[in-house]
Amino acid sequence: MLSIDTIVDLTPEDAEAAIRAALAEQGFGVLTEIDVSAVFRAKLGVDRPFLKILGACNPGFAQRALELDPTVSLLLPCNVVVETVDTGTKISAVDPLELMADPRFSELGSEVSARLRAAVDAVAAGAHRPS
Prior knowledge:
Layout: E1 3-8, H1 12-25, E2 29-35, H2 36-44, E3 51-57, H3 59-68, E4 78-85, E5 88-94, H4 96-99, H5 106-124
Antiparallel strand pairs: 1-5, 2-3, 3-4, 4-5
């Protein structure tokens, strides 16, 4: 699956804080949070590097998408992942253009994709690095 991603030289915690701030600037709130590392540790006794899934939602975009097709609720919210990789911390966002091939979603998908890309790019550019 194609995604919108970058690798940054931040701790996972700092990268998470930075992407949350960048998403907020783009009109997204984080509705859900899954700490995969903690779940695996608690449920499976498996230690794995930092991996957190943030469920980001822009209510205006979600409403427009649901008006086009109510089954789009299967794709909500947009997942944004923060994970430890060998070269730093990777931030990835689902690209809605990949998920919604229906031409009715092309304009909306482009808008959402641009906003998610702007958030990821802002963190990559250092606009949201902790001081």
